[in-house]
């Protein structure tokens, strides 16, 4: 199966959200991680109530973790940056210009593919950099042996099979009302033992 189906899925999703560019990844958390790496963010600031893989990124990246007692709905900004965790957002034309908006297709999300995410951005340069970062430092559909890879990449790309499922399920997702998430859908992570020393 060709990676052209991934590009097609990216195009359909970016059109729905009203974003100029989209980069499909294997999960939303990895999308956030790539954005943090690209922007060289040194401190991860997140709400106490979010999915636990997001604060784990501080440990993974070797950066400081700071909690905020923040009430949020649909999305929140990660740290003092343009990176947005929009894992539960599903709304037409909701892309915020100038941001790296990370969305999720994981279990329980409105467009549930079992796995996958996407980064919505507004510049071609940023999209191309994130695409290479997600794809082992190279571009898809060109054999890696024929590329002069210049930068470190991370094996975080969306595979074509998931993208095809996304294309198949997208019309239903567009025509179905999404669940409205509330802040108490997430526990206060600072009460969990794994975060007690942070």
Description:
The protein is of the alpha/beta class and 198 residues long. It has one domain (4-195): Type I PLP-dependent aspartate aminotransferase-like (Major domain) (Aspartate Aminotransferase, domain 2, 3-Layer(aba) Sandwich). It has 5 helices and 7 strands; from the N terminus they run αβαβαβββββαα. Strands 1-7-6-5-4 form a 5-stranded mixed β-sheet, with helices on both faces. The chain has a two-stranded parallel sheet with strand order 2-3. Strand 4 and strand 5 (83-85) form a beta hairpin. Helix 1 (4-17) packs parallel to helix 5 (160-174), helix 2 runs parallel beside helix 3 and helix 2 crosses helix 4 (124-134). The radius of gyration is 16 Å and the shape is globular. The model has no long low-confidence stretch (mean pLDDT 96).
């Amino acid at each position: 199966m060709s990676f052209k189906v991934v590009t097609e899925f990216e195009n359909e999703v970016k059109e729905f959200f009203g974003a100029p560019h989209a980069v499909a990844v294997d999960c939303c958390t990895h999308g956030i991680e790539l954005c943090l790496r690209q922007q060289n963010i040194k401190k991860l600031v997140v709400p106490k109530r979010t999915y636990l893989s997001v604060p784990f990124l501080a440990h993974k990246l070797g950066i400081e973790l700071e909690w905020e007692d923040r009430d949020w709905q649909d999305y929140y900004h990660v740290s003092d940056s343009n990176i947005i965790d929009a894992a539960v957002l599903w709304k037409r034309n909701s892309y915020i210009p100038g941001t790296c908006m990370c969305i999720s297709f994981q279990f329980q999300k409105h467009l549930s593919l079992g796995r996958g995410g996407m980064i919505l951005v507004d510049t071609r340069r940023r999209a191309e950099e994130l695409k290479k970062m997600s794809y082992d430092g190279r571009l898809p559909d060109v054999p890696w042996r024929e590329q002069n890879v210049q930068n470190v990449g991370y094996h975080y790309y969306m595979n074509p099979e998931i993208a095809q499922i996304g294309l198949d399920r997208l019309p239903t997702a567009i025509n179905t009302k999404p669940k409205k998430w509330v802040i108490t859908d997430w526990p206060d992570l600072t009460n969990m033992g794994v975060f007690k020393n942070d």
